[in-house]
Amino acid sequence: MLQFKFWGKIGRLLFALIIMLPSVLLAQGTIGTERPTTSTSSYTISKNSFQFEQGFAFWNDTTVLDGLFRLAVSERGEIRLFTSYGSNTTYVGAKVNLWKQNNYKPGISIQASFGNQFDLVNYRVSWSQKLTEKLGTTFNVGKANIYYVVLALGYSLGDKASLFVEAVYDDKVQQFNAGLTYLINGETQVDFSGGLLTNDSYFVALGVSRRFLYKSVIN
User: Does residue 46 sit in helix, strand or coil?
Assistant: First the structure.
């Protein structure tokens, strides 16, 4: 039986260890993240890599801190741990890339998250499609407590920055988000985003993501 408090402590410990690790990196593309969008792309992280994506969100008058930890287990698969530090809520999961995106050919992935006693709490299918050299789209359909769909558009501002807008729909609430990502280098991304919900909620969020390629350490 998973204990949320235990996994919350594990998540905080992993974050502390990561920021103290030396930066011994391989030349292997650039980081790809799931921050700060609600949608998730078909992309899975590079083989021999570990990645954390840390968010700081302000929902109305509440501050929310969360972290997503991703570990590649193959060219097309990763295991994941998501934790919300304040509530000690933690989910473990996996993501598998079924069809890699290549130029104008779409990419498709599936993913699932599990909570206490490994009960399935969320699953989704992700479709990513390049539309032009600077514009791309991501479409998700999934189920948590209820079914939902997410549609996002991303626009490249060059090698380092990009913008996105997205809409989230389910039977209870609709959400509209927008934001900006910026690559500090090939391994580090920062982001800023905000959104409005039809239940009169709103949020503003900041985030940082960091990738570590561990093959060089093993060798």
Answer: coil
pLDDT, tens only, 65-82 = 999 999 999 999 999 999
Single-letter residue type at 34: E
The pLDDT tens digits of the residues spanning 179-214 come to 999 999 999 999 999 999 999 999 999 999 999 987
CATH number of the structural domain 4-218: 2.40.160.40
Structure tokens at 98: 């079924």
Phi, psi for 16 (deg, rounded to 5):
-65, -40
* CB-based contacts of 61, cutoff 8 Å, min separation 6: none
Token digits of residue 33: 């993240």
Q: Which region, left, alpha or beta, applies to residue 27 given φ > 0 means left and ψ of -120 to 50 means alpha?
A: beta
Q: Are 207 and 194 in contact (CB under 8 A)?
A: no
Task: Report pTM.
Answer: 0.83
Q: Residue 34 in contact with residue 80, Cβ under 8 Å? A: no
How does pLDDT run across 174-184, given as a tens digit for each residue? 999 999 999 99
Domain ranges of the chain: 4-218
Q: What distance in Å separates the CA atoms of residue 212 and residue 198, rounded to the nearest whole number?
A: 38
